[in-house]
Automatic annotation (TrEMBL):
Keywords, alphabetical: DNA-binding, Sigma factor, Transcription, Transcription regulation
Signal peptide: none
Record's protein name: RNA polymerase sigma-70 factor (Sigma-E family)
PANTHER family given in the database record: ECF RNA POLYMERASE SIGMA FACTOR SIGM (PTHR43133:SF50), RNA POLYMERASE ECF-TYPE SIGMA FACTO (PTHR43133)
Residue ranges of domain RNA polymerase sigma-70 region in the record: 13-79
RNA polymerase sigma factor 70 region 4 type domain span: 102-153
One Pfam family it belongs to: Sigma70_r2
Similarity comment: Belongs to the sigma-70 factor family. ECF subfamily.
SUPFAM superfamilies: Sigma2 domain of RNA polymerase sigma factors (SSF88946), Sigma3 and sigma4 domains of RNA polymerase sigma factors (SSF88659)
InterPro entries, per the entry: RNA_pol_sigma-70-like, RNA_pol_sigma-70_dom, RNA_pol_sigma70_r2, RNA_pol_sigma70_r4_t2, RNA_pol_sigma_r2, RNA_pol_sigma_r3/r4-like, WH-like_DNA-bd_sf
Length: 162
């Protein structure tokens, strides 16, 4: 890889890290997990760019890698297990009425692919076709994930305000 290509790759990582973190945070709902997701994504992007010599659309490659890494991480068995020092007797009730916190909490309850579709469609402001291409699914699947995800978010938010 040439020095100029290496410098361009470094500039891309510096410029897009914060934007990738925001998307990762919406996907994960956890700052530490989002930071790990971005770090893993950027390592894959840099290695991919070095291996292929040049990527035509680094932004799209990084976004796709971020979403694919998130979805793959949710499939792993060890991600489903959570360690706690002491288990509570009852579930804690949400006390904060802040809409942003409520939406992020509701977003965290969605399946990973629905969450990815909603983040790409409404946070990244991608269209149905671009989201379908990025996730490797049909446009009709993106539309159904969007409809089901929005319905679940609406139900969760209405339940919170009821």
């Amino acid at each position: 890889m040439t020095r100029g290509a290496e410098a361009a790759l470094h500039a891309f990582v510096e410029a897009r890290r914060a934007a990738l973190f925001r998307s990762a945070y919406l996907l994960c709902g956890n700052r530490d997990e989002a930071d790990d997701l971005v770090q893993t994504t950027l390592v894959k992007v840099v290695l991919g760019a070095r291996r292929h010599g040049r990527l035509d659309n680094l932004e799209a490659y990084a976004r796709k890698t971020l979403v694919n890494t998130f979805i793959a991480g949710r499939r792993r068995f060890w991600r489903r297990e959570r360690a706690y020092g002491e288990l509570p007797d009852v579930a804690a009730q949400p006390t904060d009425r802040d809409t942003g916190l409520m939406v992020r909490a509701a977003l965290a309850t969605l399946p990973p692919k629905q969450r990815a579709v909603l983040v790409l469609r409404y946070w990244e402001d991608l269209g149905v076709a671009a989201t379908a291409e990025l996730l490797g699914m049909r446009e009709s699947t993106v539309k159904s994930h969007t409809a089901r995800g929005l319905a679940a978010l609406r139900a969760a938010v209405q339940e919170e305000f009821a």
